[in-house]
Amino acid sequence: MKKIASSIIALISIITIGFAQQKQQVALNGEDSVRSIIANLPEVKEKDKVYDSLTNRVQNIIIKITPPDTAVNTYRVEAGYQGGTRFQPHFYFHVDLANNMIYIEDFDRGDRTTLDEWRNRRKAQKNNSNPENE
């Protein structure tokens, strides 16, 4: 009888702990997912915590997200620096969570392209401007 009672108590304890852990977990919404995706891109990480010699301080990247609406079905993301009352974006992303795609505004070409294509363009441009290749 004691074994049964202690087994029931142990089982109840395990179930209670399991429910308590589930309540502590926070469900991520779309904006949280987008923020995490963008913050972990190597290009964005490279711009984070950059030392600014003009202001004599470290600049942290700020990510501003505009959720989709009836006209635009992607999250619009601006990643840049906040200086006083002015926000200076360095990247404009469009994230399509449903199709797992990231687009970026390519200011050199004047278009919006996939992140992979943009990276390839930058790599080709860097290789073409390298004097060793000539």
- What class, by secondary structure content? alpha+beta
Spatial ordering of strands, largest sheet: 3-4-5-6-7
Q: Tell me the Rg in angstroms.
A: 24 Å
Tally of strands: 7
Major sheet characteristics: 5 strands, antiparallel
Distance between the termini: 87 Å
Strand content: 25-35%
Please state the average pLDDT score.
81
Q: Specify the helix fraction band.
A: 40-55%
Overall geometry: elongated
Give me the number of helical elements. 4
What is the string of helix and strand elements? HHHEEEEEEEH
Contiguous runs where pLDDT drops below 50 for at least 5 residues: none
In short:
This protein has four helices and seven strands, in the order αααβββββββα. With 134 residues, it is of the alpha+beta class.
